[in-house]
Input
Amino acid sequence: MSTQSPAGIDEPGASEAAPRSAETVDHPSRSDWFVRGASGLIGGPLGDHAVALDRPADRESRFWTAGRIVLALVCLTLALHWVQKSPCQDGAWQNNIQYTRMCYTDVLALYYAEGLNEGKVPYADHPVEYPVLTGYFMGALGLPVHALGADNPAINQGQWFYNLNALVLGALAVATVAVILSLRRRRPWDAALFALSPALVLTATVNWDLLAIGLAAFGLLAWARARPDRYALLLPGVAGVLIGLGGAAKMWPLFLLGPILVLALRAGRMLAGLVATATALVTLVAVNLPVAIPYRENWERFFDLNTTRPIDWGTLWYIGRYLDGRISPSAPGELGPFEWLNANIPTLNWLSYLLFGLACLGVAGLALLAPRRPRLAQLAFLVVAAFLIFSKVWSQQFVLWLLPLAVLARPRWGAFLAWQVAEVCYFAAFYGELLGTAMSRPVFPEGVFVLASSLRLITVVVLCGFVIRDIMRPELDVVRHTYDDDPDGGVLDGAPDAPWHQRWRARAAERPAEPVPV
Output
Protein backbone atom coordinates (compact mmCIF):
# COMPACT_ATOMS: atom_id res chain seq x y z
CA MET A 1 0.00 0.00 0.00
CA SER A 2 1.12 3.58 -0.40
CA THR A 3 0.29 7.12 0.52
CA GLN A 4 1.11 10.44 -1.11
CA SER A 5 3.74 12.87 0.01
CA PRO A 6 3.00 16.59 0.07
CA ALA A 7 4.70 16.81 -3.32
CA GLY A 8 2.15 14.40 -4.74
CA ILE A 9 4.50 11.44 -5.20
CA ASP A 10 3.52 8.04 -3.93
CA GLU A 11 5.62 6.84 -1.02
CA PRO A 12 5.96 3.06 -0.78
CA GLY A 13 5.72 1.22 2.48
CA ALA A 14 3.19 3.51 4.14
CA SER A 15 -0.34 2.67 5.13
CA GLU A 16 -3.20 3.30 2.74
CA ALA A 17 -4.01 6.99 2.36
CA ALA A 18 -7.30 8.29 3.58
CA PRO A 19 -9.83 8.89 0.80
CA ARG A 20 -9.28 12.30 -0.72
CA SER A 21 -12.12 14.78 -1.01
CA ALA A 22 -13.74 14.62 -4.43
CA GLU A 23 -13.87 18.41 -4.60
CA THR A 24 -10.50 19.47 -3.14
CA VAL A 25 -8.57 21.83 -5.42
CA ASP A 26 -4.94 21.02 -6.24
CA HIS A 27 -2.43 23.80 -5.55
CA PRO A 28 0.74 23.70 -7.70
CA SER A 29 2.87 25.32 -4.97
CA ARG A 30 2.25 22.19 -2.93
CA SER A 31 2.14 19.46 -5.58
CA ASP A 32 4.56 20.62 -8.29
CA TRP A 33 8.25 20.67 -7.38
CA PHE A 34 9.06 23.43 -9.90
CA VAL A 35 6.30 25.78 -8.71
CA ARG A 36 7.10 24.91 -5.10
CA GLY A 37 10.68 26.05 -5.59
CA ALA A 38 9.77 29.14 -7.61
CA SER A 39 7.15 30.16 -5.05
CA GLY A 40 10.00 31.08 -2.70
CA LEU A 41 10.29 34.32 -4.68
CA ILE A 42 6.85 35.39 -3.43
CA GLY A 43 6.88 33.96 0.08
CA GLY A 44 6.81 30.21 -0.40
CA PRO A 45 4.10 27.57 -0.94
CA LEU A 46 0.51 28.01 0.14
CA GLY A 47 0.34 27.49 3.89
CA ASP A 48 -1.52 24.67 5.59
CA HIS A 49 -3.76 27.16 7.39
CA ALA A 50 -4.64 29.32 4.38
CA VAL A 51 -8.27 28.28 4.67
CA ALA A 52 -9.59 31.09 2.50
CA LEU A 53 -7.56 29.84 -0.45
CA ASP A 54 -7.82 26.12 0.24
CA ARG A 55 -11.52 25.58 0.54
CA PRO A 56 -13.37 22.94 -1.55
CA ALA A 57 -14.00 23.76 -5.21
CA ASP A 58 -17.76 24.15 -4.82
CA ARG A 59 -17.55 26.51 -1.82
CA GLU A 60 -15.64 29.42 -3.31
CA SER A 61 -17.17 32.67 -2.08
CA ARG A 62 -14.50 35.07 -3.35
CA PHE A 63 -14.88 36.78 -6.73
CA TRP A 64 -11.31 36.04 -7.80
CA THR A 65 -11.51 32.26 -7.88
CA ALA A 66 -8.77 30.25 -9.54
CA GLY A 67 -10.87 29.86 -12.69
CA ARG A 68 -11.56 33.56 -13.02
CA ILE A 69 -7.91 34.40 -12.44
CA VAL A 70 -6.87 32.01 -15.21
CA LEU A 71 -9.48 33.46 -17.59
CA ALA A 72 -8.21 36.96 -16.81
CA LEU A 73 -4.65 35.79 -17.46
CA VAL A 74 -5.47 34.43 -20.90
CA CYS A 75 -7.18 37.71 -21.77
CA LEU A 76 -4.00 39.52 -20.71
CA THR A 77 -1.89 37.14 -22.81
CA LEU A 78 -4.06 37.76 -25.86
CA ALA A 79 -3.84 41.52 -25.30
CA LEU A 80 -0.05 41.23 -25.24
CA HIS A 81 -0.22 39.22 -28.44
CA TRP A 82 -2.30 41.95 -30.10
CA VAL A 83 0.30 44.54 -29.06
CA GLN A 84 3.11 42.33 -30.37
CA LYS A 85 1.37 42.11 -33.76
CA SER A 86 0.31 45.78 -33.86
CA PRO A 87 3.27 47.04 -35.95
CA CYS A 88 1.99 44.93 -38.86
CA GLN A 89 -1.71 45.72 -38.63
CA ASP A 90 -1.80 48.53 -41.19
CA GLY A 91 -0.40 46.23 -43.89
CA ALA A 92 2.27 48.75 -44.90
CA TRP A 93 5.13 46.32 -44.51
CA GLN A 94 8.08 48.51 -45.48
CA ASN A 95 11.74 47.74 -44.80
CA ASN A 96 10.86 44.16 -43.79
CA ILE A 97 9.09 45.38 -40.65
CA GLN A 98 7.09 42.15 -40.55
CA TYR A 99 10.35 40.30 -39.89
CA THR A 100 12.34 42.82 -37.85
CA ARG A 101 9.37 43.24 -35.47
CA MET A 102 8.44 39.54 -35.76
CA CYS A 103 4.82 40.53 -36.34
CA TYR A 104 4.06 38.72 -39.60
CA THR A 105 0.64 37.09 -39.76
CA ASP A 106 -0.97 35.02 -42.51
CA VAL A 107 -4.32 36.46 -41.52
CA LEU A 108 -3.45 39.89 -42.88
CA ALA A 109 -1.26 38.72 -45.77
CA LEU A 110 -3.82 36.25 -47.10
CA TYR A 111 -6.64 38.82 -47.05
CA TYR A 112 -4.95 40.12 -50.19
CA ALA A 113 -3.32 36.92 -51.47
CA GLU A 114 -6.62 35.00 -51.42
CA GLY A 115 -8.49 37.81 -53.16
CA LEU A 116 -10.80 38.65 -50.26
CA ASN A 117 -9.96 42.33 -50.74
CA GLU A 118 -11.51 42.03 -54.21
CA GLY A 119 -14.63 40.30 -52.95
CA LYS A 120 -13.63 36.85 -54.25
CA VAL A 121 -15.52 33.98 -52.65
CA PRO A 122 -13.13 31.29 -51.33
CA TYR A 123 -13.04 28.20 -53.56
CA ALA A 124 -15.75 29.55 -55.89
CA ASP A 125 -13.60 32.40 -57.25
CA HIS A 126 -10.15 31.52 -55.94
CA PRO A 127 -8.32 28.33 -54.82
CA VAL A 128 -7.55 28.29 -51.09
CA GLU A 129 -4.57 26.49 -49.57
CA TYR A 130 -6.43 25.47 -46.40
CA PRO A 131 -9.17 22.94 -45.55
CA VAL A 132 -12.68 24.10 -46.31
CA LEU A 133 -13.88 25.23 -42.88
CA THR A 134 -10.91 27.59 -42.63
CA GLY A 135 -11.83 28.89 -46.08
CA TYR A 136 -15.45 29.37 -44.97
CA PHE A 137 -14.20 31.21 -41.91
CA MET A 138 -12.00 33.49 -44.01
CA GLY A 139 -14.90 34.30 -46.30
CA ALA A 140 -17.42 34.79 -43.49
CA LEU A 141 -15.23 37.49 -41.95
CA GLY A 142 -13.49 38.82 -45.05
CA LEU A 143 -16.36 39.40 -47.48
CA PRO A 144 -18.36 41.67 -45.10
CA VAL A 145 -15.18 43.68 -44.47
CA HIS A 146 -14.71 44.07 -48.24
CA ALA A 147 -18.35 45.12 -48.67
CA LEU A 148 -17.95 47.69 -45.90
CA GLY A 149 -14.69 48.97 -47.37
CA ALA A 150 -16.18 49.30 -50.83
CA ASP A 151 -18.63 51.89 -49.49
CA ASN A 152 -16.03 53.49 -47.19
CA PRO A 153 -12.71 53.88 -49.05
CA ALA A 154 -11.07 55.42 -45.98
CA ILE A 155 -11.29 52.08 -44.14
CA ASN A 156 -8.14 49.99 -44.05
CA GLN A 157 -9.75 46.70 -44.99
CA GLY A 158 -6.77 44.55 -44.12
CA GLN A 159 -6.53 46.04 -40.63
CA TRP A 160 -10.26 45.62 -40.04
CA PHE A 161 -10.06 42.02 -41.25
CA TYR A 162 -7.11 41.23 -39.00
CA ASN A 163 -8.71 42.77 -35.91
CA LEU A 164 -12.01 41.00 -36.53
CA ASN A 165 -10.14 37.69 -36.83
CA ALA A 166 -8.10 38.50 -33.72
CA LEU A 167 -11.32 39.11 -31.79
CA VAL A 168 -12.96 35.84 -32.86
CA LEU A 169 -9.80 33.74 -32.54
CA GLY A 170 -9.13 35.31 -29.14
CA ALA A 171 -12.63 34.33 -28.04
CA LEU A 172 -11.88 30.76 -29.15
CA ALA A 173 -8.66 30.81 -27.09
CA VAL A 174 -10.60 31.96 -24.03
CA ALA A 175 -13.18 29.25 -24.71
CA THR A 176 -10.39 26.66 -24.89
CA VAL A 177 -9.16 27.75 -21.46
CA ALA A 178 -12.73 27.51 -20.18
CA VAL A 179 -12.90 23.95 -21.52
CA ILE A 180 -9.64 23.03 -19.75
CA LEU A 181 -11.03 24.50 -16.54
CA SER A 182 -14.20 22.48 -16.97
CA LEU A 183 -12.21 19.29 -17.56
CA ARG A 184 -9.97 19.99 -14.56
CA ARG A 185 -12.27 21.42 -11.91
CA ARG A 186 -10.04 20.02 -9.16
CA ARG A 187 -6.88 21.28 -10.91
CA PRO A 188 -7.84 24.76 -12.19
CA TRP A 189 -4.27 26.05 -12.13
CA ASP A 190 -3.34 23.57 -14.87
CA ALA A 191 -5.16 25.85 -17.32
CA ALA A 192 -2.68 28.61 -16.45
CA LEU A 193 -0.09 26.65 -18.46
CA PHE A 194 -2.12 27.44 -21.57
CA ALA A 195 -3.19 30.92 -20.45
CA LEU A 196 0.38 32.09 -19.77
CA SER A 197 2.07 30.25 -22.61
CA PRO A 198 4.76 32.34 -24.36
CA ALA A 199 3.89 30.49 -27.56
CA LEU A 200 0.33 31.81 -27.32
CA VAL A 201 1.68 35.36 -26.96
CA LEU A 202 3.74 34.96 -30.13
CA THR A 203 1.58 32.84 -32.46
CA ALA A 204 -2.10 33.15 -31.52
CA THR A 205 -3.12 34.87 -34.77
CA VAL A 206 -0.26 33.91 -37.08
CA ASN A 207 -2.86 31.69 -38.77
CA TRP A 208 -6.34 30.32 -38.09
CA ASP A 209 -5.23 27.34 -35.97
CA LEU A 210 -7.25 28.47 -32.93
CA LEU A 211 -10.42 27.72 -34.90
CA ALA A 212 -9.55 24.01 -35.05
CA ILE A 213 -8.23 24.07 -31.48
CA GLY A 214 -11.47 25.51 -30.12
CA LEU A 215 -13.60 22.96 -31.98
CA ALA A 216 -11.37 20.07 -30.89
CA ALA A 217 -11.47 21.28 -27.28
CA PHE A 218 -15.27 21.33 -27.29
CA GLY A 219 -15.22 17.88 -28.88
CA LEU A 220 -13.08 16.57 -26.02
CA LEU A 221 -15.44 18.19 -23.52
CA ALA A 222 -18.47 16.52 -25.12
CA TRP A 223 -16.69 13.16 -25.03
CA ALA A 224 -15.68 13.70 -21.39
CA ARG A 225 -19.28 14.42 -20.38
CA ALA A 226 -20.63 11.16 -21.85
CA ARG A 227 -21.75 8.52 -19.36
CA PRO A 228 -22.87 4.89 -19.88
CA ASP A 229 -26.61 5.50 -19.50
CA ARG A 230 -29.46 5.53 -21.99
CA TYR A 231 -28.10 8.71 -23.54
CA ALA A 232 -24.59 7.24 -23.73
CA LEU A 233 -24.29 7.62 -27.51
CA LEU A 234 -25.61 11.19 -27.76
CA LEU A 235 -22.55 12.99 -26.42
CA PRO A 236 -20.03 10.76 -28.28
CA GLY A 237 -21.98 11.71 -31.40
CA VAL A 238 -21.73 15.40 -30.51
CA ALA A 239 -18.03 14.94 -29.84
CA GLY A 240 -17.62 13.36 -33.26
CA VAL A 241 -19.40 16.25 -34.97
CA LEU A 242 -17.15 18.80 -33.24
CA ILE A 243 -13.97 16.81 -33.96
CA GLY A 244 -15.10 16.46 -37.58
CA LEU A 245 -15.60 20.22 -37.81
CA GLY A 246 -12.15 20.72 -36.31
CA GLY A 247 -10.73 18.33 -38.91
CA ALA A 248 -12.44 20.35 -41.64
CA ALA A 249 -10.55 23.43 -40.38
CA LYS A 250 -7.14 21.79 -39.83
CA MET A 251 -6.46 18.10 -40.24
CA TRP A 252 -4.94 17.33 -36.82
CA PRO A 253 -8.18 17.06 -34.72
CA LEU A 254 -8.97 13.88 -36.66
CA PHE A 255 -5.96 12.29 -34.96
CA LEU A 256 -7.97 12.28 -31.70
CA LEU A 257 -10.16 9.52 -33.10
CA GLY A 258 -7.40 6.92 -33.01
CA PRO A 259 -6.80 7.20 -29.25
CA ILE A 260 -10.56 7.19 -28.64
CA LEU A 261 -10.95 3.93 -30.59
CA VAL A 262 -7.97 2.19 -28.97
CA LEU A 263 -9.08 3.10 -25.45
CA ALA A 264 -12.66 2.12 -26.25
CA LEU A 265 -11.35 -1.24 -27.46
CA ARG A 266 -9.46 -1.86 -24.22
CA ALA A 267 -12.45 -0.81 -22.12
CA GLY A 268 -14.99 -2.80 -24.12
CA ARG A 269 -16.90 0.39 -25.05
CA MET A 270 -16.37 0.19 -28.82
CA LEU A 271 -19.86 1.38 -29.71
CA ALA A 272 -19.23 4.84 -28.24
CA GLY A 273 -15.88 5.04 -30.02
CA LEU A 274 -17.37 3.98 -33.33
CA VAL A 275 -20.21 6.51 -32.99
CA ALA A 276 -17.71 9.32 -32.39
CA THR A 277 -15.58 8.22 -35.34
CA ALA A 278 -18.51 7.76 -37.71
CA THR A 279 -20.09 11.12 -36.90
CA ALA A 280 -16.72 12.83 -37.27
CA LEU A 281 -16.18 11.35 -40.73
CA VAL A 282 -19.74 12.09 -41.84
CA THR A 283 -19.35 15.69 -40.65
CA LEU A 284 -16.03 16.00 -42.46
CA VAL A 285 -17.57 14.78 -45.73
CA ALA A 286 -20.68 16.94 -45.32
CA VAL A 287 -18.61 20.09 -44.83
CA ASN A 288 -16.38 19.33 -47.82
CA LEU A 289 -18.97 18.24 -50.38
CA PRO A 290 -20.48 21.70 -51.11
CA VAL A 291 -17.03 22.79 -52.30
CA ALA A 292 -15.49 19.54 -53.54
CA ILE A 293 -18.24 18.84 -56.09
CA PRO A 294 -18.72 22.19 -57.86
CA TYR A 295 -15.19 23.57 -57.38
CA ARG A 296 -13.08 20.43 -57.37
CA GLU A 297 -9.92 21.98 -58.80
CA ASN A 298 -9.92 24.84 -56.29
CA TRP A 299 -10.78 22.44 -53.47
CA GLU A 300 -7.82 20.22 -54.36
CA ARG A 301 -5.39 23.12 -53.90
CA PHE A 302 -4.82 22.12 -50.24
CA PHE A 303 -3.98 18.54 -51.15
CA ASP A 304 -1.83 19.49 -54.15
CA LEU A 305 0.19 21.94 -52.07
CA ASN A 306 0.85 19.42 -49.31
CA THR A 307 1.71 16.66 -51.78
CA THR A 308 4.23 18.71 -53.77
CA ARG A 309 5.72 20.73 -50.93
CA PRO A 310 9.43 20.05 -50.29
CA ILE A 311 11.18 19.89 -46.91
CA ASP A 312 10.14 22.94 -44.91
CA TRP A 313 12.09 25.00 -42.40
CA GLY A 314 12.64 23.71 -38.89
CA THR A 315 11.60 20.09 -39.44
CA LEU A 316 13.48 16.88 -38.66
CA TRP A 317 14.16 16.59 -42.39
CA TYR A 318 15.52 20.15 -42.56
CA ILE A 319 17.95 19.37 -39.74
CA GLY A 320 18.99 16.28 -41.68
CA ARG A 321 19.63 18.33 -44.83
CA TYR A 322 21.89 20.64 -42.85
CA LEU A 323 23.84 17.71 -41.44
CA ASP A 324 24.13 15.96 -44.81
CA GLY A 325 27.17 17.90 -45.88
CA ARG A 326 28.78 18.12 -42.47
CA ILE A 327 28.75 14.58 -41.11
CA SER A 328 29.48 12.73 -44.36
CA PRO A 329 30.12 15.17 -47.23
CA SER A 330 29.05 13.83 -50.61
CA ALA A 331 31.20 13.77 -53.68
CA PRO A 332 30.66 16.61 -56.17
CA GLY A 333 27.36 16.12 -57.96
CA GLU A 334 26.05 13.60 -55.41
CA LEU A 335 23.23 14.27 -52.99
CA GLY A 336 23.16 13.39 -49.34
CA PRO A 337 20.25 11.19 -48.19
CA PHE A 338 18.10 14.07 -46.93
CA GLU A 339 18.92 16.26 -49.91
CA TRP A 340 17.96 13.33 -52.12
CA LEU A 341 14.62 13.07 -50.32
CA ASN A 342 14.04 16.78 -50.92
CA ALA A 343 14.56 16.17 -54.63
CA ASN A 344 12.25 13.11 -54.58
CA ILE A 345 9.17 14.45 -52.83
CA PRO A 346 6.88 11.40 -53.39
CA THR A 347 9.42 9.23 -51.53
CA LEU A 348 9.69 11.87 -48.80
CA ASN A 349 5.90 11.87 -48.46
CA TRP A 350 5.68 8.10 -48.12
CA LEU A 351 8.56 7.94 -45.66
CA SER A 352 6.95 10.64 -43.52
CA TYR A 353 3.60 8.81 -43.60
CA LEU A 354 5.30 5.50 -42.80
CA LEU A 355 7.13 6.86 -39.77
CA PHE A 356 3.95 8.52 -38.49
CA GLY A 357 1.99 5.32 -39.03
CA LEU A 358 4.59 3.29 -37.12
CA ALA A 359 4.48 5.84 -34.30
CA CYS A 360 0.68 5.49 -34.17
CA LEU A 361 1.01 1.71 -34.00
CA GLY A 362 3.48 2.18 -31.16
CA VAL A 363 1.02 4.40 -29.30
CA ALA A 364 -1.74 1.82 -29.83
CA GLY A 365 0.52 -0.92 -28.51
CA LEU A 366 1.40 1.24 -25.52
CA ALA A 367 -2.30 1.76 -24.81
CA LEU A 368 -2.96 -1.98 -24.81
CA LEU A 369 0.17 -3.07 -22.94
CA ALA A 370 0.26 -0.38 -20.23
CA PRO A 371 -0.37 -1.69 -16.70
CA ARG A 372 -3.33 0.67 -16.41
CA ARG A 373 -5.46 2.07 -19.22
CA PRO A 374 -3.88 5.41 -20.25
CA ARG A 375 -5.77 8.65 -20.19
CA LEU A 376 -7.17 9.98 -23.47
CA ALA A 377 -5.15 13.20 -23.34
CA GLN A 378 -1.91 11.25 -22.94
CA LEU A 379 -2.44 9.25 -26.12
CA ALA A 380 -3.77 12.27 -28.03
CA PHE A 381 -0.66 14.27 -27.15
CA LEU A 382 1.63 11.45 -28.30
CA VAL A 383 -0.15 11.05 -31.64
CA VAL A 384 -0.21 14.76 -32.50
CA ALA A 385 3.40 15.16 -31.36
CA ALA A 386 4.43 12.21 -33.55
CA PHE A 387 2.77 13.85 -36.53
CA LEU A 388 4.74 17.05 -35.99
CA ILE A 389 8.02 15.24 -35.36
CA PHE A 390 7.88 13.29 -38.63
CA SER A 391 6.06 15.83 -40.80
CA LYS A 392 7.93 17.65 -43.56
CA VAL A 393 6.15 20.87 -42.50
CA TRP A 394 6.23 22.29 -38.97
CA SER A 395 5.01 25.89 -39.14
CA GLN A 396 5.66 28.25 -36.26
CA GLN A 397 2.03 28.29 -35.12
CA PHE A 398 1.72 24.48 -35.00
CA VAL A 399 2.91 24.73 -31.40
CA LEU A 400 -0.67 25.74 -30.60
CA TRP A 401 -1.88 22.25 -31.54
CA LEU A 402 0.09 20.71 -28.70
CA LEU A 403 -0.66 23.35 -26.04
CA PRO A 404 -4.04 22.14 -24.74
CA LEU A 405 -3.05 18.49 -25.11
CA ALA A 406 0.18 19.04 -23.18
CA VAL A 407 -1.75 20.74 -20.38
CA LEU A 408 -4.22 17.86 -20.17
CA ALA A 409 -1.64 15.10 -20.64
CA ARG A 410 1.11 16.22 -18.26
CA PRO A 411 0.49 19.42 -16.27
CA ARG A 412 4.01 19.77 -14.91
CA TRP A 413 5.51 23.26 -15.09
CA GLY A 414 9.22 22.42 -15.34
CA ALA A 415 9.36 20.45 -18.62
CA PHE A 416 6.51 22.52 -20.04
CA LEU A 417 8.40 25.79 -19.55
CA ALA A 418 11.60 24.28 -20.98
CA TRP A 419 9.62 23.41 -24.11
CA GLN A 420 8.17 26.92 -24.25
CA VAL A 421 11.63 28.48 -23.97
CA ALA A 422 12.73 26.33 -26.90
CA GLU A 423 9.69 27.49 -28.88
CA VAL A 424 10.53 31.15 -28.18
CA CYS A 425 14.12 30.58 -29.32
CA TYR A 426 12.84 28.93 -32.49
CA PHE A 427 10.41 31.80 -33.10
CA ALA A 428 13.21 34.37 -32.93
CA ALA A 429 15.57 32.26 -35.06
CA PHE A 430 12.83 31.66 -37.63
CA TYR A 431 12.26 35.38 -38.13
CA GLY A 432 16.00 35.87 -38.43
CA GLU A 433 15.97 33.27 -41.19
CA LEU A 434 13.06 35.02 -42.92
CA LEU A 435 14.83 38.37 -42.69
CA GLY A 436 18.03 36.93 -44.09
CA THR A 437 16.12 35.45 -47.04
CA ALA A 438 14.36 38.77 -47.71
CA MET A 439 17.67 40.69 -47.65
CA SER A 440 19.57 37.98 -49.58
CA ARG A 441 22.20 37.87 -46.86
CA PRO A 442 22.19 35.83 -43.65
CA VAL A 443 21.42 37.51 -40.34
CA PHE A 444 23.28 34.78 -38.47
CA PRO A 445 24.93 31.46 -39.40
CA GLU A 446 22.58 28.73 -40.57
CA GLY A 447 23.71 26.59 -37.65
CA VAL A 448 21.96 28.95 -35.21
CA PHE A 449 18.59 28.26 -36.81
CA VAL A 450 19.30 24.53 -36.96
CA LEU A 451 20.23 24.58 -33.27
CA ALA A 452 16.96 26.34 -32.40
CA SER A 453 15.04 23.81 -34.53
CA SER A 454 16.84 20.95 -32.78
CA LEU A 455 16.04 22.32 -29.33
CA ARG A 456 12.36 22.53 -30.22
CA LEU A 457 12.40 18.97 -31.54
CA ILE A 458 14.30 17.65 -28.52
CA THR A 459 11.99 19.29 -25.95
CA VAL A 460 8.91 17.84 -27.67
CA VAL A 461 10.52 14.39 -27.71
CA VAL A 462 11.40 14.78 -24.00
CA LEU A 463 7.79 15.68 -23.22
CA CYS A 464 6.70 12.55 -25.10
CA GLY A 465 9.15 10.55 -22.99
CA PHE A 466 7.68 11.92 -19.78
CA VAL A 467 4.14 11.11 -20.94
CA ILE A 468 5.17 7.55 -21.85
CA ARG A 469 6.82 7.17 -18.44
CA ASP A 470 3.61 8.33 -16.74
CA ILE A 471 1.65 5.78 -18.77
CA MET A 472 3.94 2.91 -17.82
CA ARG A 473 4.15 4.10 -14.20
CA PRO A 474 0.66 5.46 -13.43
CA GLU A 475 1.67 6.36 -9.86
CA LEU A 476 3.73 9.21 -11.35
CA ASP A 477 0.75 10.68 -13.24
CA VAL A 478 -0.14 13.85 -11.31
CA VAL A 479 -3.66 13.97 -12.73
CA ARG A 480 -4.34 10.60 -11.11
CA HIS A 481 -3.16 12.02 -7.82
CA THR A 482 -6.32 14.18 -7.97
CA TYR A 483 -8.71 12.04 -10.02
CA ASP A 484 -9.35 8.33 -9.62
CA ASP A 485 -9.13 7.54 -13.33
CA ASP A 486 -9.50 9.72 -16.46
CA PRO A 487 -11.50 12.95 -16.18
CA ASP A 488 -11.47 13.20 -19.99
CA GLY A 489 -12.51 9.60 -20.55
CA GLY A 490 -16.29 10.00 -20.64
CA VAL A 491 -17.80 6.52 -20.92
CA LEU A 492 -14.31 5.12 -20.30
CA ASP A 493 -13.78 6.91 -16.99
CA GLY A 494 -13.75 4.32 -14.21
CA ALA A 495 -14.69 1.48 -16.56
CA PRO A 496 -12.87 -1.83 -16.03
CA ASP A 497 -10.85 -3.28 -18.86
CA ALA A 498 -12.78 -5.49 -21.25
CA PRO A 499 -12.94 -9.19 -20.28
CA TRP A 500 -10.79 -10.17 -23.28
CA HIS A 501 -8.07 -7.78 -22.13
CA GLN A 502 -8.25 -9.02 -18.54
CA ARG A 503 -7.92 -12.64 -19.71
CA TRP A 504 -5.02 -11.73 -21.99
CA ARG A 505 -3.16 -9.97 -19.17
CA ALA A 506 -3.84 -12.85 -16.79
CA ARG A 507 -2.39 -15.34 -19.28
CA ALA A 508 0.61 -13.08 -19.83
CA ALA A 509 1.19 -12.88 -16.06
CA GLU A 510 1.02 -16.65 -15.70
CA ARG A 511 3.40 -17.34 -18.58
CA PRO A 512 6.77 -18.48 -17.15
CA ALA A 513 9.75 -16.36 -18.00
CA GLU A 514 12.13 -17.85 -20.55
CA PRO A 515 15.50 -18.90 -19.09
CA VAL A 516 18.32 -16.55 -19.88
CA PRO A 517 21.18 -18.36 -21.66
CA VAL A 518 24.47 -18.29 -19.81
Summary: Confidence is low (pLDDT under 50) at residues 1-22. The longest strand covers residues 2-4. The CA atoms of residues 46 and 53 lie 8 Å apart. The chain is about 60% helix and 0% strand.
